[in-house]
């Protein structure tokens, strides 16, 4: 085997050694993170109303022009 083949096998062994984990056959999944509590401070409602008013103003300007 030439030097390039040995280097390639060594490189592959290094790459795969970190990704393979030997366990005792039990799969343990991590618990999902709890979602933060929902809070509504009114900014989303205000922004939605602002967008609706902007669209209404654009439509009125388009129709008048």
TrEMBL record:
Residues 1-18 form the signal peptide. The chain crosses the membrane at residues 49-64. Keywords: Membrane, Signal, Transmembrane, Transmembrane helix. Pfam families: AGP. It comes from the Eukaryota. The keyword Plastid does not apply. PANTHER family: ARABINOGALACTAN PROTEIN 20. This is Arabinogalactan peptide 16. It comes from Platanthera zijinensis.
């Amino acid at each position: 085997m030439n030097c390039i083949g040995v280097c390639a096998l060594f490189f592959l062994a290094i790459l795969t050694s970190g990704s393979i984990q030997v366990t005792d056959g039990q799969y343990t999944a991590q618990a999902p993170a709890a979602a933060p509590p929902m809070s509504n401070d009114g900014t989303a409602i205000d922004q939605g109303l602002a967008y609706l008013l902007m669209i209404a103003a654009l439509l009125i300007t388009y129709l008048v022009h």
